[in-house]
Amino acid sequence: MPTFDVSTASPAEVSADLLMLPFYQGRKAGPGVAEVGKALGADLMATLQDHQVTGRVGDAVTFPTFGKIAARSLMLVGLGPKDEADPGALRRALLRVAGRASKFARVASALHQATGDRAESLHAFAEGLVLGAYRFDRYKQRPIDDASKERTALKKAVALTDGSPDARTLKAAMRRGEIYANAANWARDLVNTPALDATPEFLATEATAMAAKAGLQCKVWTKAQLQKAGFGGILGVGSGSVNEPRLIELTYRGGGSGRPIAITGKGITFDSGGLSLKQPEWMETMKDDMGGAAATLAAMRAIGELKPKVDVIAAIPTAENMPSGSAIRPGDVLRHYGGKTSEVLNTDAEGRLVLADALAYLAEKKPALIVDAATLTGAAMIALGQDVAAVIGSDQQVIDDLREAALSEGEPLWQLPLWTEYRRLIESTVADVKNVGNRYGGAITAALFLKEFVGDVPWAHLDVAGTAFSDRGNPYWPRGATGAPARTIIRFVETMAERDGRAGGPRKGRAR
Ligand code: BES
Ligand code: ZN
Ligand code: ZN
Q1: What are the residues whose beta carbon lies below 5 Å from ligand 2 (ion)?
Q2: Which residues make Cβ contacts (< 8 Å) with residue 326, sequence separation at least 6?
Q3: What residue owns the CA closest to ligand 1's atom 9?
């Protein structure tokens, strides 16, 4: 990973292997382009036309500079329409070009001078560069091609500045972006790792090692300990697998003045559906069903590194959902942590069963609020597609704060209603609640199930079934895990800490 720095050198004078300069849609020059064009003796915007490039976000052309400026190569990077060029556009542009840019050892950039707020832009720049350079190749004996052998030569990324704001502010913004992106990339590694290797125990071991590095407390609950304490949901879902379930508990003490923030995430290391077995094509990507857990772990890692002034607790349930002679059956009743029971009518609606235990456990600790992240329902993906995740909850303030954090991080959320009338759809004749509704409104009935276990703690749930994993890949994300919603949770926690410092903890509000 590169080190990030700032320099007051001018674009034509900065010594680098690659200089990145911005332009806007319609081939409008951004900061630095006129000066460098003059030094090169070239009309750069006209040259773009020859290369059939208009300036959409992440369009890019790289030129050799033949010694006419100090940088050896020049990359012109499109940022879309000038009036829409914001830090989000910069992050998206970097997601597209980072692979190419990171083949150069020393990169200098003036891109952030074209997208508004400098610090926010440099946060996005560092994030986009680190996220965009990510590759998952640890299972490849041979690199895909020779070019990938030269990959990540990137050692140093330098942001060109005119001196304002000060270098310390700018460097801190990049460092923060780097921490966010490294955490998200770790979540991507965990999700991309096949379920053959990424078992509940593996996640627990990774969490323990992370906690030691990030200065967090970590307790891993074994199967025997879960049995003793009555975590029937986690145990039930895990009962069909030879890989035993775990509960991963992490604590960060930031010296906040109020109650802790509680977070959790669904950690199904593989979701076969259990006895309610999935169709093969739906099972293909189900190693991603611990995306919520991975994002929660990644958020805790970043929180440990960023040290916000707030306390954060996480309880992450992890199990493998497999069919076998010891698996739970449709019709079985599970007793969750705290005593509530659920009737399991479909063993493929397993995420809510493990989360129920974790939510009840966290609620017992009387936190200020609870946020959970889960690849919970195909219904959320049908409703919102793969770019936007669903947020549903009992507290409008928490929902709004999450939406804002998500938007800043380019992981957009859309609110679905916690439609309490649908509670009747999960009424059970034998237990307190049943684990499936009818065919319709599946993301909402799943959230209503979770709601049963949070008591009166302000709570919001992120259904990231569509966004945690890109099954086809797109211009911004290669096929595989995206790390979502790790960066949203980190940003949310940082915002809460800042507010806590100012006004005494998260505000209260009612859900619409
Ligand atoms: N892990 C799935 C949800 C999912 C689907 C995640 C597609 C990512 C991509 C979840 O456990 C599940 O199977 N949900 C069922 C619930 C149904 C049985 C009520 C679903 O959404 O079909
Ligand atoms: Zn399932
Ligand atoms: Zn699942």
Answers
A1: 271, 348, 350
A2: 239, 240
A3: 465
- 348 CA distance to ligand 1 centroid (A)? 7
Distance CA 16, CA 24 (A): 23
pTM of the model: 0.97
Burial of 135 (0-12, 13-18, 19+ CB in 10 A): middle
Decide: helix, strand or coil at residue 59: coil
Write out residues with Cβ below 6 Å of ligand 1: 271, 289, 346, 348-351, 375-379, 381, 436, 442, 465
**First CA to last CA distance, the chain:** 44
Whether the bond between 417 and the residue before it is cis, its omega within 30 degrees of 0, is no
For 205-221, write each residue's pLDDT tens digit: 999 999 999 999 999 99
Question: For residue 410, is pLDDT > 60?
Answer: yes
d(CA 136, CA 155): 19
**Separation of alpha carbons 411 and 490, rounded Å:** 12
Nearest one of 459, 310, 477 to 410, comparing CA atoms = 477
Ligand 3 mean position, distance from CA 194 (Å): 15
CB 307 within 8 A of CB 424: no
Tell me the residue ranges of DSSP E strands in 15-97.
18-24, 28-29, 60-64, 73-78
Q: Given a cut of 90, is residue 141 above it in pLDDT?
A: no
Distance, CA of 309 to chain centre: 22
- In this structure, the residue with its CA closest to atom 16 of ligand 1 is 349
Looking at the annotation, which residues are catalytic?
A: 278, 352
Quick one: average pLDDT of 120-149?
87
Mean pLDDT on 188-210? 99
pLDDT band at 1 (very low <50, low <70, confident <90, very high): confident
User: Which pair of tokens denotes residue 510?
Assistant: 């009612």
Q: What is the mean pLDDT of the chain?
A: 96
Instruction: Report the pLDDT value the prediction gives residue 145, as an integer from 0 to 100.
Output: 60
pLDDT band at 500 (very low <50, low <70, confident <90, very high): confident
- The pLDDT assigned to 433 comes to 98
Helix (H, G, I), strand (E, B) or coil at 53: coil
Among 493, 482, 502, 484, which residue's Cα sits nearest to residue 306? 493
Output the CA torsion sign for 193, 199, 202, 204.
positive
Displacement of CA 400 from its chain's centroid (Å): 18
Mean pLDDT confidence for 446-450? 99
Under 8 Å between Cβ of 17 and 104: yes
Provide the token pair at 310: 């707030």
pLDDT confidence band for 152 (50 / 70 / 90): low
DSSP 16-28: -SEEEEEEETTTE
CA of 321 to the centre of ligand 2 (A): 8
